[in-house]
Amino acid sequence: MFEYVFRVVDGAEKEGKSLAALFLSYDLSPSVTYPRQLQQAAALLNHVIHTLNYPPSSIILAGDSAGANLVLALLSHIMHGHPNESIPRVRLAEPLDGAVLLAPWVTFATRSKSYEANKYKDLLHPSALKIWSSAYQSTVPSDNYIEPLYASSSWWTRLPTVVSSMLVIAGENEVFIDDVKAFAKKLQEVETETWGREMKFVVVENEYHDQPNFGFGEDTLGKERSQGWEIGRWVWERC
After folding, report:
1. Quick one: which of 24, 94, 98, 143 is 20 to 30 A from 61 by CA?
2. What is the rounded distance in angstroms from the CA atom of residue 59 to the CA atom of residue 164?
3. What is the mean pLDDT of the chain?
4. Domain ranges for the chain
5. Phi, then psi, of 220 in degrees rounded to 5
6. What does the alpha-carbon distance between residue 12 and residue 42 come to, in Å, rounded to a whole number?
C-alpha cells in the first residue's frame, strides 16, 4: 500500500501538482474490535480539518478492502451520526473532495457466485475472511456501518453533501466482485443532478483483489487501464 501511494504522490509532483498522503495507523483486530477503528478515523479527519487546517474540499479519503469498508463507515457516520457516543462527531462546512474505494469489503457474507467463480483466481479465501470479520465485529450485531451492502439506497441519499466525487474500483477476478457490483449499483441510484457523473465505477479485466498493492513488483500505476492506473489518474485530476 505505501509503495503504491508514494508512486501516486510522486506522479502528481511530476505533473506539477500538489499532493500529500496521510495514513491512519488504526488498531488491529483481534486486539481491539469495532468501533475502535471508526473512532480513530473520525478523530484523524477532525485533526486534519481543525488542527492542520486543511479544508474538506482538499481532502480525498481512500481505502482498500477493509480500509474501504472503514471509509464507508466514516462517510455514514458523517451523514447519520453513529449511535455510539464514543465516536467523535465530524461536521463538515463543505463536502470532502473525493473518496476512493479499492476492492471494498461491503459484506462479510461469502455466498455470492463470484466466490466460487474466482476461487482459483484471487488471493482471498472464505475461511480467512470469516476469521478476520469475526475478529473485527466480535459480538456486535451487524449494521450499516459494518456491512454497507445491506444499507438501503435511501441511506446514501445525503452522500453527495459530504463527498463531491467517488471512485469505486475492483478487479474482475476477485471474490468480492459480485458484492462490489451490487453495492455500486445502490450508490448509482442516488438521485441528484451531478452525482451520476461524479460516482465512477470501474471493473478491470483479468485483475484480482487489491492488485495495486499486491502487484508483486509490477508497476501497477504505469500499466494502462489497470486498477492502479485508473486510481492514479482519478486522483491527479483532483489535485
Report:
1. 143
2. 10
3. 95
4. 2-236
5. -70, -20
6. 27
